[in-house]
Amino acid sequence: MRRKAREAVLRCLYRWEFLKLPPEELLAEVDLPQEAQDFARSLLFGVLAHRDKIDPIIEERAHGWGLDRLPLVDRNILRLGLYELLFTGTPPEVVIDEAVELAKAYGTERAPAVINAILDRVWKEGRRGTLG
Q1: Is the pLDDT of residue 67 over 80?
Q2: 2: CB partners within 8 A, 6+ apart
Q3: What is d(CA 69, CA 59) in angstroms, rounded to the nearest whole number?
Q4: Cα separation of 112 and 97, whole Å?
């Protein structure tokens, strides 16, 4: 159920890149059970609210790729993963695994490895207190 919510949020984030619709409008087209809908809502609102903190983390760690050069889907999988990693209580191993699974299903060929590496690095930096 949570994976379906994450997939729905990824689709919403993708649409948001082009249309800049309010989150409520993006979610209006999502058909999920209520619990999954609530989870998707919290993720989407969270990612969009914290983009100003998340995007610089991606930019700094996506060596050789600026944020704007990352493939759109890959960038939004990273945004979703970083939001969940940094701002929720979801276990880091679950966050990383779910992001990699999204990357396998929807991202570019290199996405699973890149997303795994960036999220793992951020997680380890956070544990050491060197995230910044």
Answers
A1: no
A2: 36, 39, 98
A3: 10
A4: 10
pTM here is 0.92
Task: Give the DSSP H/E element, type plus range, for residue 124.
Answer: helix 111-128
Tokens 């997939």, located at residue: 7
Retrieve residue 50's tokens.
């914290």
Domains and CATH numbers, the chain: 2-128 (1.10.940.10)
Q: Is the dihedral of CA 10, 122, 120, 2 positive or negative?
A: negative
76-103 pLDDT, tens per residue?
Answer: 999 999 999 999 999 999 999 999 999 9
State the DSSP code for 69: G
Query: Among 57, 92, 105, which residue's Cα sits nearest to residue 78?
Result: 57
CA angle (108, 109, 112) in 5-degree steps: 85
More confident call, 53 vs 126: 53
DSSP state for residue 68 in the 8-state scheme: G
